């Protein structure tokens, strides 16, 4: 029972197979060439739009500084993500216990999502000073909500028949949590971590902006330092941030796939 | 006929009296009274939605019966009694669901051992009991290492049966366990179930809406009617002892007594639904 489009897809399969890996790379090359060409042809000033060549040059000359800032921001984002992965799971575990707990606490959990981070950041600085920990907390603050929200949904999405099985065997609340709720919630938890991973880089960047000094500059600080002086460096910084968010997302996905192998197995069926 | 009439003085293994259940305003069960003798195999038969599965869930403690509306009415009673051989007051219960209901993130072995694990049984005892249960239901050690999804529907149901018998229960409750299987498989599992029932000295209640399945398996059929709002009839419509004796094997299905019994019970069911 093959229909037209399916057949077409099959016929040109070799094209899609061959291009799957190369296509994004091709797009990148085309865009970079067009960009470089545009800057050259129209003679656009560097402070308006640096050419790809300017960005490469800035990366080369300011390499050590850029690298140090990248390491700092990556550590802040990683620590913040680790914090929200751990605390988010604990908070979801509390919320997953009973409806009345969710009803009484959920409005306050929503604060993480609704309070603007630029309002919270100065407050955290007042409390914890211009430190690594402050940026870590900002990264955790901005990335924790998707983990709490997703994991809580997972913990209460237990199959009714599975719950009957546990009740028949007089399972304790702890056993129901550990043997039934947690395994059911793992795929939800994984999805939450993936969203949080990209958000934590964003949080670390915002934190850098508020906390950064010349002695301790992260990417979020560097991007504003470079804005008026070296547009090439600014773009290089933005690029580093983008790549970092991407890498964190990939790492989180990889981590989830490994940890949740049993579930992935199941879902392949 | 049934073992109940053979030993009239024996106290029942399963006893229910004045049991009512409503979900919201919908009356699901009205005034259910039933007794099952130790070692008896009883089938609950009736149309979909007549509350026969609810009886099973009430007996298993998954639901609780409604309290009487007037204080003068007698309180509902639901009792499962141990024969005393296990030394426990409350008999151990096996329960088989309509679906295999295996946890997809655990292997077949781990699924079968789950009831023991939840009871805190030691690991080595658990392993040997799981091995035994696998053997009893006709699964191999290799099947035990697989994920549930790797087994066919019939084998998943066997694993589900193994999980129910791993605790060596005295009372076995089965809620339309074979309804999703093809006819040949259903018959074969029915034959094996009847063997296990005898071998393990179970007291068994089996819920089904298949007349031929009920007649083949049961010593006695309890027929349930679908309730309507305007009458005050009890849920339990008829108590039909099966009219033949002897082995419940594949050959029985071709014997005259069996076919006649299927026709007789079907007639009763039709009368009831008119």
Shape summary of chain A: globular
Using only C-alpha atoms, the radius of gyration of chain B works out to 19 Å
Please identify the structural class of chain A as seen in this structure: mainly alpha
CATH architecture of the largest domain in chain A: Orthogonal Bundle
Order of strands across the main sheet of chain B: 5-6-7-3-8-9
Radius of gyration of chain A: 24 Å
Compute the number of strand runs of chain B: 9
Share of residues in helices of chain B: 25-40%
Average pLDDT of chain A, rounded to a whole number, is 85
Q: What's the number of structural domains of chain B?
A: 2
- Give the C-level CATH assignment of the largest domain in chain A: Mainly Alpha
CATH topology of the largest domain in chain B: Rossmann fold
Largest interface (CB within 8 Å) is between: A-B, 20 and 20 residues
Oligomer description? heterodimer
Calculate the terminal CA-CA distance of chain A, rounded to whole Å.
Answer: 22 Å
Q: State the major sheet of chain B.
A: 6 strands, mixed
β-strand amount of chain B: 15-25%
CATH C-level label of the largest domain in chain B = Alpha Beta
* CATH architectural label of the largest domain in chain B: 3-Layer(aba) Sandwich
């Amino acid at each position: 029972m093959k229909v037209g489009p399916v057949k077409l897809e099959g016929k040109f399969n070799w094209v899609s197979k061959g291009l799957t890996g190369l296509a994004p790379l091709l797009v990148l090359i085309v865009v970079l060439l067009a960009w470089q060409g545009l800057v050259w042809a129209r003679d656009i000033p560097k402070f308006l739009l640096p050419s790809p060549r300017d960005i490469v040059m800035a990366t080369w000359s300011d390499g050590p500084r850029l690298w140090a800032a990248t390491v700092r921001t990556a550590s802040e984002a990683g620590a913040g993500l680790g914090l929200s992965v751990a605390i988010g799971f604990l908070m979801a575990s509390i919320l997953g216990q009973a409806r009345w707990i969710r009803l009484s606490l959920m409005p306050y959990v929503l604060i993480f999502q609704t309070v603007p981070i630029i309002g919270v950041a100065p407050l955290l600085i007042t409390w914890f000073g211009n430190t690594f920990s402050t940026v870590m907390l900002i990264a955790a603050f901005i990335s924790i909500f998707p983990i709490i929200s997703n994991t809580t949904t997972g913990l209460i999405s237990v199959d009714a028949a599975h719950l009957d099985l546990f009740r028949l065997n007089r399972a304790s609340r702890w056993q129901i949590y550990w043997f039934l709720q947690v395994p059911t919630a793992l795929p939800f938890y994984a999805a939450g971590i993936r969203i949080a991973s990209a958000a934590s880089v964003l949080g670390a960047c915002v934190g850098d902006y508020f906390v950064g000094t010349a002695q301790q500059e992260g990417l979020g600080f560097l991007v504003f330092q470079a804005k008026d002086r070296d547009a090439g460096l600014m773009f290089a910084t933005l690029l580093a941030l983008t790549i970092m968010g991407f890498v964190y997302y990939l790492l989180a996905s990889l981590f989830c796939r490994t940890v949740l192998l049993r579930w992935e197995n199941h879902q392949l069926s | 006929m049934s073992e109940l009439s053979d030993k009239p003085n024996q106290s029942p293994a399963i006893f229910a009296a004045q049991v009512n259940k409503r979900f919201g305003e919908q009356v699901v069960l009205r005034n259910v009274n039933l007794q099952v003798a130790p070692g008896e195999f009883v089938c609950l038969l009736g149309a979909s939605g007549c509350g026969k599965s609810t009886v099973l869930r009430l007996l298993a403690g998954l639901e609780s019966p409604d309290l009487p509306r007037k204080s003068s009415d007698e309180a509902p009673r639901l009792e499962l009694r141990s024969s005393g051989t296990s030394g426990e007051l409350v008999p151990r219960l096996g329960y088989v669901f309509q679906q295999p209901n295996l946890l997809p993130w655990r292997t077949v072995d781990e699924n079968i051992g789950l009831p023991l694990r939840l009871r805190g049984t030691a690991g080595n005892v658990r392993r040997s009991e799981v091995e035994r249960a696998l053997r009893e239901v006709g699964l191999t050690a290799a099947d035990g290492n697989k994920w549930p999804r790797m087994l066919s529907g019939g084998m998943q149901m066997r694993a589900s049966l193994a999980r129910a018998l791993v605790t060596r229960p005295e009372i076995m409750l089965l809620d339309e366990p074979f309804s999703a299987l093809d006819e040949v498989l259903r018959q074969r599992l029915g034959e094996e179930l009847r063997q296990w029932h005898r071998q393990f000295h179970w007291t068994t209640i089996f819920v089904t809406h298949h007349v031929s399945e009920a007649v083949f398996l049961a010593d006695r059929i309890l027929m349930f009617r679908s309730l309507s709002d305007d009458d005050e009839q009890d849920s339990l419509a008829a108590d039909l002892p099966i009219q033949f004796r002897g082995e419940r094997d594949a050959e029985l299905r071709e014997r005259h007594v069996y076919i006649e019994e299927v026709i007789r019970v079907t007639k009763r069911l039709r009368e009831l639904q008119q």
